[in-house]
Amino acid sequence: MGKDILIVGAGLSGAVIGRELAEAGHSVRIVEARDHIAGNCHTERCPETGVMVHVYGPHIFHTDDTGVWDYVNAHMRFLPYKNRVKAQSGGRVFSLPINLLTINQFFGQTLRPAEARAFIEAQADTTIEDPQTFEEQALRFVGPALYEAFFKGYTQKQWGCHPRELPAAILKRLPVRFNYDDDYFAHRHQGMPEGGYTEMVASILDHPGIEVALNTPYAPDMADDADHVFWSGPLDAYFGHDLGRLGYRTLDFERFTEQGDYQGCAVMNYCDAEVPFTRITEHKHFAPWETHEGSVMYREFSRACGPDDIPYYPIRQVEEKTLLRDYVTRAETLAGVTFVGRLGTYRYLDMDVTIREALDTARHFLRSRAGNKAMPAFVHAPL
Ligand SMILES: Cc1cc2nc3c(=O)[nH]c(=O)nc-3n(C[C@H](O)[C@H](O)[C@H](O)COP(=O)(O)OP(=O)(O)OC[C@H]3O[C@@H](n4cnc5c(N)ncnc54)[C@H](O)[C@@H]3O)c2cc1C
Asked: Does the keyword Isomerase apply (predicted)?
């Protein structure tokens, strides 16, 4: 029997769109190239230690979108979790994001908030009136000492180029807090799914109108009997990369295990350029309600993404945006396919934004069908 909706990818985008359309009475077929659902949010228990591992890197759920918070909680109980990141720089450990504790420890001071603000302002390079690069932005707002210690080496490792080659927009306007708030995210809702993200996505997919085929990369003939295709794979991959490859950074994870508590926190950043990795993640600290003797760690290395690597972070510099424009123009000439999610629209998207956009996309589709209107290639513009 023909399936009316084909979805490529069983990550959050594909699962949420699939569920909305199945609820509306469509039959949905999802093809997934990997041997598991949940895309890059995939979690699985380490058979040796019992620790829940974030297989493609650490994922913390945080949002101000109460509708999305209710949506995920309807599929999995979320337990309270605050992301409190630590950073090593120059052989010392500090609190991130840079806050009053970081400033006082780093400069050996006991400043109060207003004093710290004045102190940092005195370090800032106010001759830079209109920062253009990441480096200028950092020097303009935090001055050379904090820039060198916390931003320069880390950014260089993460993006593979000097911060003066990156746009100012990558760094928030003032990446410093003048109080002791060390909660990495400033969102109203924050937590971790008790049973992991994959179990949550399994619940989203658990509908009689949805069929999921794992280990099944998309092939064009799959679309033959589909009424519409939602594509959450890489935009350029849909076209066989024939105009060139959109640039990404990929990550290598060096996994190791230890007994006990390895680093005392979930995420430790390594800011110095001489240390080749960007951070170490200790996964059991993402589930503080669980107890495990053993521990699983990931040392995380960032590098340019090759053709056989997993694309993680879109680069979106001038060159990539030019190529992106060409692919978008081409995609817009197509009928019957909509590009969605972080890869389909070549943007970094947090999970809450991914879910919100997926809900919007599904509703847009249902309205289009009801009104006999064509469904666009993009509900959320990549540019
Ligand atoms: C290192 C890292 C850390 C992150 N941490 C956080 C965090 O802490 N908090 C947060 O909110 N967000 C975080 N995110 C973002 C989060 O991963 C994304 O929001 C989410 O994965 C987007 O879901 P998606 O379905 O759009 O894409 P994906 O999860 O990438 O799913 C796409 C799926 O499509 C499949 N696919 C691709 N091509 C094909 C094909 N040709 N045929 C069949 N299947 C195909 C892929 O195998 C994949 O399973 C992080 C992202 C990264 C890279």
From this structure: yes
